[in-house]
Description:
It comes from Psychrobacillus psychrotolerans. InterPro entries: Met_Synth_C/arc (IPR002629), UROD/MetE-like_sf (IPR038071). By secondary structure, the chain is an alpha/beta fold. The protein has a single domain, classed as TIM Barrel. The chain is 36% helix and 17% strand.
Amino acid sequence: MSKSLVVNTPFKADHVGSFLRPARLKEARLQFENNEITADHLKQIEDEEITKLVTKQKDIGLQSITDGEFRRKWWHFDFLSGFDGVEFYETDKGLTFKGVQTRAHGIKVTGKIRFSTHYMIEHFKFLQGIVGEAVAKFTIPSPNMLLYRATIEEGVYASQEELFADLVVAYQDVIQALYDEGCRYLQIDDTSWATTFSEEGIISLKEKGMELDEALALSARAINESIAKRPHDLLITMHICRGNFKSTYITSGSYELVSETIFAKLDVDGLFLEFDDERSGGFEPLRHVTRSDLSIVLGLITSKHGALEDTELVKNRITEATKYVPLEQLCLSPQCGFSSTEEGNLLTEKEQWSKIHHVIQISQDVWK
């Protein structure tokens, strides 16, 4: 097993985590679902493909190394259903993105939420064992994804506050378990904030009986309390996403309405932010960054298509961001992963790696 390395900030050239699933892996997962191969056979193929992926990440020059989320169908449901009391199930319809729907899957709370063990601990251990001197970065969904996406069976919890308390403890426990296995770079992924980026989203909150300020306070509490007991040498970042399925999205809007909360009231060490197109608005909300120890990772390179961004334009946008945040606090990455679900975005693996190389090259020029 590789040694645990101290990571103080995200890397200047970083990435969100997921990569396109290789054809061999997709075929194996389909064979497993059709009872044509065993779970052990599928795991062997997953192990082999993840090992290849780790080698590719290291060869191209990444310093934070993930398993590409190769063992997952979904970036969030798979992890959340690993807690006691939470189940993965087939729903009536999928999630609605712009022009497309996902498969009809979801999670439901059927009992008290607890961490007794979690199968993804083994996923991290495998990754940690093969990264060598690089940093193993592990990605998990935010606790907000359960609060906002799960169906709660009647009679399980007397109040939302009771559920909230159990969820926070479960997160504290799983974070400690990952740390005990050597994790020093943990990323929390969260799409719930995007609901508050637009008037349409705020209306949907009100239809659920929740005001904007109430929603922001709840989301911030969920993050802060879940990571409150983390060891001092565990770097925790958060990726705020507007949706990423087959190169589509769920919502648009600036960070403005939530900027004072996410930039001044969250206890994370860094934020991965989407800034790849006009849907994200400008950099003005960054004026609310009040902490000198908060890293801002600019997602200026899109993962949704294969065309490479103009290098000078990206550099100019980084310069523009320095009007609000010092250059030393900024980093660069794609705006999201390449495969938030196993289907993946609409680009080739060659284009995917060209994007990563682009991030690294630009970062080396900017942060010499």
